[in-house]
Amino acid sequence: MFAGQVDEIEAVVNAHPQVHRGVVIAREDGPGDRRLVTYVIPEDTVPHSDSGPSANASAGDFVAQWRRVYDDLYSEVISVDDPQLGRLGSDFSGWNSSYTGGAIPVEEMTLWRAATVDRIRGLKPARLLEIGVGSGLLMSHLAADCVEYRATDFSPVTIAKLRARLKAAGVPWADRVHLRVAEAIETDRLPEGYFDTVVINSVAMHFPGHGYLRRVIEQALRVLAPGGSLFLGDIRNLSLLEEFFTAVQLARDPSAEPATIHERAQRAVAAEDELLLAPEYFVATARELADVAGVDIQLKRGAAVNELTRYRYDVVLHKAPARTHSLADVPRVAFADLACRDIGDFGNHLERIMGEQPGESLRVTGIPHGGLIGEVAAAQRIRRGQPVSTVAAPGGGAQADAGWLPEDLHLLAQRLGRKVAVTWSAQPDRMDAVFLGPGAIAQASRPGAGDRAVLTDVYEAREPLERAARYANYPHASVLADDVRRFVAERVPGSMVPAAVVIVDQFPLTVDGELDRAALPAPDFTSEHGWP
What we know:
Elements: H1 6-14, E1 19-30, E2 33-42, H2 57-73, H3 106-121, E3 127-131, H4 139-142, E4 148-153, H5 156-169, E5 177-181, E6 195-201, H6 210-223, E7 224-236, H7 241-252, H8 258-270, H9 280-288, E8 292-299, H10 307-311, E9 312-319, E10 324-326, E11 332-334, H11 343-356, E12 362-368, H12 373-383, H13 406-415, E13 419-424, E14 430-436, H14 438-444, E15 454-456, H15 477-489, E16 500-503
Parallel strand pairs: 2-16, 3-4, 3-6, 4-5, 6-7, 10-15, 11-12
Antiparallel strand pairs: 1-2, 7-9, 8-9, 12-14, 13-14
Helix pairs in contact: 7-8, 7-12, 8-12
């Protein structure tokens, strides 16, 4: 069965314009259950050396879809006579809650923006490039302190509206701002080694794949001056994707059976059309790119408890040469060993330990994250087929007696006369906090960006570390899998159409460099596609 057919089908698969490489094998995952399965490496997950608009049609189509979304979002008002134009930097259109479908409250978005602005200001920007400027939420608060502020966006409608708003606002720093319509990878017209800061905030999730993101990072490093910083904000955490969608499904239908919630969450995971990245992606990228001297991964700040502060984080990549201050080997203590009753008790423990180690930084591992404890626990119960009580249902605020938010740790550090870097922990509902010693604070707080030490090794990646690509999803895996199967079905007899198409980022190889068929992931024949 299937003898002589595999090569013919494989040739058809590899003729698909969005396939970088495909293989077809006959799998037997059960006695007598022998089926054809296609494994595909998508074209736009493979980094390309060119810096043109899009390396292939697939990436271009994907970017064009998002461009249409933002053109529609910002197309309602372009006239300079509109009174809303004067409210530069106050348009939070499109920021909707996944839990409710309604707009995230403006008060929460204002706090989110303030925390992001403070983080970028800490980089001491003077010549700043923002890729994906949107409605100017960050520009309206950062440009006044910059010598030059250049900003791009792939939506012509967005740039037109922002220009009109900027003109109507009459701000004194408007002449420092230069706006241009450009895709994220279109930086070839910008001077090399010119900017001290590049900002890509709430944009990477709309990239077509990690190959595209890698090109954007490389281009950003090219235009950064030596010692400059690349800020990537609002990164969605791939490691918590199942927990996120389980929480969303519970919030929407808390009375549904656990099996139903689990099935809906799994379907949502498979259909995810945004780019998500585990924090290891950036640690691996820093190791793979010689231009990166350090990587600083920290959790979002803010007193509000929503999906932005629960599931997203910020990354700063520092371009070489840079004077880095590593937090890899600072003294540490496990939170569980402190037996804290409350945050005041936690502060007392910290004061005691810091008094015993004056001047040293201190890493506390495994601190309960009050915004995630309930949602992670709910996902674990759902996976076991157990119901979740309405009291513990996700989507609401943090439980004060169950843990703390990153913001609580920043306030505690302030009371202790310290600064703190809060990052992900080894457990999904925990966080690590590095309370910086006086020496580290002094080095990181010098006036100019060029003469201060920058933090690195804030996040402790799980070792051994794999290729960066292993820590990213493929945003339109289900769409491509269905399209490949349809493409093949139009060109071969029905009996030769693969039973499933599996999207992978690489093929496993034997020690001899041959395809290791036994190591290929088993397909999910119910969905006919997947991303293992």
